[in-house]
């Protein structure tokens, strides 16, 4: 797999299980890229939905992707603290065009006080039937929900106290 170069800007493409595009983030600056992990940053980037609607993100965000984990984490830096949006998804791939993954509907929103809420279980159930998610995917996703909850409770990975400070500072350095 290709590895994105630090400092370069790439798109993020989210797909549904059937291969159709779900959402595109127009621009994310690569802060760290290896074959296993990508950390990126963006601020006020254009997002295009599958139906063509567009909107702008409102705040700086640090994005965490891993090639072996079935989730990615968006860390949103707001005035009242750090909010985390965790997408249950396939591991990412990078193909020189974009960071790509399949969105599997389930999400965990984490608040600045590290409380969290599992979201979109009804959407997951509906899409599991519509797209025919195999049982193996369901089991993998349930295990990764548990892993994410452990990471939140243990303040691991992007939930570690200094993660945002380190990567947001690097993002600001790249923005010049």
Mean pLDDT: 97
User: What is the H-and-E element order?
Assistant: EEEEEEEEEEEHHH
Distance between the termini: 29 Å
Q: How many domain units? A: 1
General form? globular
- CATH top level label: Mainly Beta
- Beta-strand portion reads 35-45%
Structural class: alpha+beta
Rg measurement, Å: 15 Å
Structural account:
The protein has one domain (9-175): FomD-like (FomD barrel-like fold). The protein is 25% helix and 43% strand. The chain contains three helices and eleven strands, in the order E-E-E-E-E-E-E-E-E-E-E-H-H-H. It has helices spanning 121-131, 135-154, 163-175, and strands at 9-15, 21-33, 37-42, 46-49, 54-56, 61-66, 71-78, 81-89, 93-94, 98-110, 116-119. It has a seven-stranded mixed β-barrel with strand order 1-2-3-6-7-8-10. The longest helix has 20 residues, at 135-154. The radius of gyration is 15 Å and the shape is globular. Belongs to the Ntdp family. It comes from Rossellomorea marisflavi. The active site is at 23 (proton donor).
């Amino acid at each position: 797999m290709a590895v994105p170069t630090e400092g370069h800007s790439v798109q993020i493409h989210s797909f549904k299980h059937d291969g159709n595009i779900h959402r595109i983030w127009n621009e994310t600056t690569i802060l760290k890229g290896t074959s296993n992990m990508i950390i990126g940053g963006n601020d006020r980037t254009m997002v295009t939905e599958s139906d063509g609607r567009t909107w702008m993100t409102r705040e700086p965000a640090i994005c965490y992707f891993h090639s072996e984990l079935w989730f990615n984490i968006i860390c949103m830096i707001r005035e009242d603290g750090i909010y985390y949006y965790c997408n249950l998804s396939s591991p990412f791939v990078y193909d020189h065009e974009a960071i790509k993954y399949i969105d599997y509907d389930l999400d965990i929103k984490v608040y600045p006080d590290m409380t969290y809420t599992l979201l979109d279980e009804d959407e997951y159930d509906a899409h599991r039937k519509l797209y025919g998610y195999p049982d193996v995917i369901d089991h993998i996703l349930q295990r990764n929900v548990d892993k994410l909850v452990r990471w939140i409770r243990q303040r691991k990975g992007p939930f570690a106290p200094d993660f945002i400070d380190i990567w947001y500072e690097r993002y600001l350095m790249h923005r010049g």
